[in-house]
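Table 4 source record.
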Amino acid sequence: MAIATNTNLDGLKRGSVAVVGAAESDLGQVAPNTNPMDLMAQATLRALEDCGLTLKDVDGLFVAATQVRMGPMAFAEYLRIKPRYFDGTIIGGSSFMSHVAHAHAALQLGLCSVAVIAYGSTQRSVSRAAASPRDFNPYESPYRPFLPSSAYAMAAMRHMHQYGTTREQLASVAVAARQWALMNPKAWEKEPLTIEQVLNARMVSYPFTVRDCCLVLDGGGAIVMVRADRAKSLKKKPVYVLGTGESLSHANISSLPDFTVSAAKESGAQAYAAAKLKPSDMQMLSLYDAFTITPLLFLEDLGFCKKGEGGPFVASGAIAPGGSLPVNTSGGGLSYCHPGMYGLLVMIEAIRQIRGECGQRQVKGCDVALAQGNGGVLSSECTVIFGSEATL
């Protein structure tokens, strides 16, 4: 289905690179006059401290942001470093999973030795419209859609029509996310949530109420990657990159070939093949949940249930605390934090689960985790599978 699928990274060696540092910036509503690069720098310094490295060690820089033009150039200047390798790929919220694949290649080829992937956004402080302006599309913009909500609502409506998915089943995704968030001290939402509260909340774009939609917050994050031979000498337990996949299917929602199938079907297949693993090997999932429909689609497209069975699966409690498949244990974009493009925070939770750093919400014996990024309006899908040393 995808019009462009990455097939050029077959030479990447499973487990040849590792994430050694991971950190968020301040989250929520940040201090006045804070800008996105302040948050990127804050997260980067915290991630470097996490692994015992410094800015002087960084020679690879990967940046995507909607509020910063020419991100790698601007951020390198801000940090006063001169990277040997840099990448400004921007394909929405999945950009950072794509950066992991590209950093994997750069590290393996010796183009850099310490790679930082960073992001920051002040969309709550400056407004979402100012932080992420929309391009004019002559085929859609005249109808004045409320994007991105209306685009994802169309996908949800088609899934409901075709497979009988209910609003209650969609609401159960938000409820599960909130249950996980209540175990995360950094999560924005602090109160329990019921299916009835989701259904009765303010309508945004049918079938979505405001509780079906991600948070609009400030925040950012950073991760540090090195080659596997160096990883063991640093402060924290290395988390190895076992497999990656990248796929595009469209830019505008009116060009999506099938509203019930995402390009995660292709990116996931690539990542599983590279990792030499299958869906049943995954011990936790960190799925981009911009809206309640996205985890449901990804569960189907990544092979955790059959197409059309995502609704009953999530309604069964399988993805909630105590369920058979831990999903979005941070609370996700629905209840933890969603700072415009959320993919880096998606990966940070998966990394922390493998490190065993998640406290009350820790998945016992987590050695393998899948992080799924989503960009645009279900437009770009990128998958990363992480593993502990036990998986090598």
